[in-house]
UniProtKB/TrEMBL annotation:
Disordered as annotated region, ranges: 80-137
Taxonomy of the source species: Bacteria, Bacillati, Actinomycetota, Actinomycetes, Kitasatosporales
UniProt protein name: Uncharacterized protein
């Protein structure tokens, strides 16, 4: 982002993928920032585990299925907005008086990975073994 860009929204989005070939389901969390550039254009920036990635909602950003390798565009499953500072008046906050020593243990904390959550349950038996058709959600 350029110096004059302004972040207008931040969120964590859980994106679900369903492979149209093998019907495997998986999900991943993406950090999303929306920002406005100095010309007034609106942009969206995605990252996973701190690495910039294309939008998972586009064919170019669709990750490969971990089972068969085909790529399928994701759909939003859940979203958590990240409040923008400084927050409303009287929002709880803590002034940092020692920037170099403030919660120094966080620098060595393990990465909370984008797939570090409970994954969707398998769909069950294949359609030919079940009386009901398998339909992706």
């Amino acid at each position: 982002m350029e110096v004059d860009d302004v972040i207008t929204e931040m969120a964590v989005e859980r994106v679900e993928f369903t492979c149209g070939r093998c019907w495997h389901e998986w999900s991943a969390d993406y950090d999303v920032q929306q920002y406005r550039d100095e010309q007034g254009g609106q942009w969206e920036y995605f990252s996973r585990d701190g690495t910039p990635v294309p939008s998972p909602y586009t064919p170019a950003g669709a990750p490969p299925c971990p089972i068969c390798g085909r790529r399928w565009v994701g759909r939003i499953l859940a979203r958590r907005p990240v409040p923008m500072p400084p927050g409303a008046t009287h929002t709880p906050r803590l002034k940092i008086t020692d920037a170099s020593g403030h919660r120094s243990e966080r620098h060595g904390a393990r990465l909370l990975g984008s797939a570090a959550h409970v994954q969707p349950e398998p769909l069950g038996p294949p359609a030919e073994e079940s009386s009901e058709p398998r339909v992706p959600r």
